[in-house]
Design brief:
By secondary structure, this protein is an alpha+beta fold. It has helices at about 5-30, 35-40, 65-80, 165-170, 175-205, 210-230, 280-295, 305, 330-335, 340-345, 370-375, 415-420, 525-535, 540-550, and strands spanning about 45-50, 55, 90-95, 105-115, 115-125, 155, 160, 235-240, 250-255, 260-265, 310-315, 365-370, 385, 425-430, 450-455, 460-465, 485-490, 500-505, 510. The chain is about 30% helix and about 20% strand. The protein is globular, with a radius of gyration of 23 Å. The mean pLDDT is about 95.
């Protein structure tokens, strides 16, 4: 076969591989028990070679899962080498330091076999509603308080379930049906991926993924290096502040762009917290790489080779390099600020490619009620639920920011009806927040207002995990800051932005989600766009005059 035909066939095989992993992800979504997976899409799926290198990921998925899961498969292989795996085996962990950063993420790895010989590995990660312990929140003093801790073990051995594991799983969670069902879902979607991969290999007369892997890795690395070469070489620094828990957290980055790599040094970043906002190093690398890649090489597929030129130096004792057994349950409230930090550095090199700062960290309040909150006086059955929501994203150079959209996590906003269907909660408001977008030539995205209560106005609890309240998203190039978030009750009482708190009977939780920062001089904004926002009720006429001179 000629070189030209070989390249065409390899491209067809690559496209087919993407279809395989996307089907893998979709099966997970359609069979999942937890609303976090089936409604929000808080998951990832990918295919790996026998060295544990990621070849392709599903389009559906979050950077925090995908890029840290890329490291985790190597840990599975260290304990269970590929040559020892058998058809029907499935391996699982939620170890934050071997998986994707906290106990609520389950990672499953499954071998694929062609005519009795192992040819590849499938992995996925999904965020489940509950793994026991204190629940998803920052209150733990160590990871041992945060929930059920599963080391890398077999959950299925040649098709037979590990009943001892499932016994522990069922008694270790407030939602046993959902957790056990999700594990079966994760294994089922990997099985589907493995089946489709073998069909693909047979169709193309292949007995190994190695030639295709070499094509993918060589092409991706070459293309990434070409894009890095377009970035002006030099050193760029930035910092950002998180609300933190005990005290504000400063994130500092010094980025050095070289001819063939980009290195980020986090020296000067705040030290470890005594609460669960700490970030394992793999999660720091995951969102740091994503923040660089969406600016430097957004069109290049995400895989082991395309991420290889991005390197992080994370000091020991830094909040972004939490060692075992520090609490890490809500590592996202700090970790999801890292893409904004990376863009702060890259703004100095390629200002036309970055966005303004956005809401960034998800506003996903875990809600709990029943006897576990109210004791014998409980008016509701026990429930535990998480709802995923987001503020506005930062403005783009030529487009406004997106309203109520999750960036950088990429998860979907959960329909309130889906949450109300599985728990005795009521969403009395869920609408865009007037005046929350940072002004600019292109404005930021609008945040949201959410009012949450329960049936009968019974008391319930929220495990608050909110950020961007004391430190609003900043605009760039003269753009205004987005509105800071606000957390309280509908009577105006404010509550702590992090930690377990009870909403008393007769009161409701009120969340005002942050807006994204603006980009450029607001006076240069198209008047028609200002008038549109006024007509839509997103800003008042007074705000329009004050911000835009309209």
């Amino acid at each position: 076969m000629s070189d030209a035909l070989t390249k065409i066939q390899q491209q067809i095989q690559w496209n087919r591989l993407i279809a395989v992993v996307e089907e893998q992800a979709q099966i997970m979504i359609r069979t999942a028990f937890s609303t976090t997976v089936r409604e929000a899409g808080d998951l990832s799926a990918g295919v790996f070679d026998l060295q544990g290198r990621m070849l392709a990921q599903a389009v559906t998925g979050t950077p925090g899962h995908v890029n840290s899961m890329m490291e985790s498969v190597g840990h599975f292989l260290a304990k269970f080498p590929a040559e020892t795996m058998k058809p029907g085996d499935h391996y699982i962990t939620n170890d934050p330091w071997l998986g994707t950063g906290h106990l609520h993420d389950l990672t499953v790895v499954t071998p694929a076999f062609q005519r009795g010989r192992i040819v590849g590995l499938f992995a996925n990660t999904a965020h489940v509603i509950d793994v026991g312990g204190l629940g998803m929140g920052p209150e733990g003093r160590s990871v041992f308080e945060e929930g059920l801790y599963i080391p890398i073990v077999k959950c299925f051995d040649q098709g037979k379930p590990n009943e001892t594991l499932f016994d522990f799983v069922r008694v270790g969670t407030r939602t046993p049906v959902e957790l056990e069902g999700d594990i079966y879902s994760l294994c089922a979607c990997n099985d589907a991926g493995a089946k489709r991969l073998v069909e693909m290999l047979d169709e193309f007369g292949m007995d190994s993924l190695d030639p295709l892997a070499s094509y993918i890795f060589d092409s991706s690395l070459k293309a990434t290096l070409e894009e890095i070469a377009k970035i002006p070489q030099g050193s760029y620094s930035a910092q950002i502040t998180s609300d933190g828990y005990e005290a504000p957290v400063t994130l500092k980055a010094a980025m050095t762009v070289k001819a063939d790599e980009i290195v980020v040094d986090y020296a000067g970043t705040s030290g470890l917290s005594g609460r669960g906002i700490n970030v394992p190093a793999s999660y720091c690398r995951a969102y740091s790489c994503f923040g660089i890649k969406v600016v430097v090489a957004p069109e290049i597929p995400n895989n082991w080779a395309s991420l290889a030129p991005f390197r992080m130096e994370i000091p020991e004792g830094c909040i972004l390099n939490a060692p075992r057994p520090y609490p890490v349950s809500v590592r996202h409230v700090v970790g999801q600020l890292l893409p904004d930090l990376m863009m702060g550095c890259l703004h100095q090199a390629v200002p036309d490619r970055v966005t303004a700062e956005g809401s960034s960290a998800l506003w996903n309040p875990p809600l709990r009620g029943g006897a576990q909150v109210s004791g014998a006086a409980a008016e509701l059955p026990d429930f535990e639920i998480i709802t995923f929501n987001s503020g506005g994203t930062g403005a783009r150079r030529t487009k406004d920011g997106m309203d109520g959209t999750a960036f950088p996590s990429g998860v979907r906003t959960m329909p309130v009806e889906a949450t109300e269907n599985v728990a005795p909660v009521i969403f009395w408001q869920n609408q865009l927040r007037e005046g929350s977008a940072g002004a600019g030539r292109t404005r930021g995205g609008f945040g949201k207002v959410m009012e949450i209560g329960t049936k009968g106005e019974a008391e319930f609890a929220v495990n608050a995990i909110f950020d961007r309240v004391a430190n609003a998203p900043k605009g760039r190039d003269g753009g205004g800051d987005g509105a800071a978030g606000w957390v309280g009750h509908t009577d105006g009482t404010t509550v702590r932005t992090k930690g377990f708190q009870v909403v008393p009977k007769g009161k409701r939780l009120l969340l005002k989600l942050p807006g994204g920062g603006g980009m450029g001089d607001p006076k240069q904004r198209d008047r028609a766009l200002v008038e549109r926002d006024v007509a839509d009720g997103l800003i008042s006429e007074e705000q329009a005059k004050a911000l835009y001179g309209a």
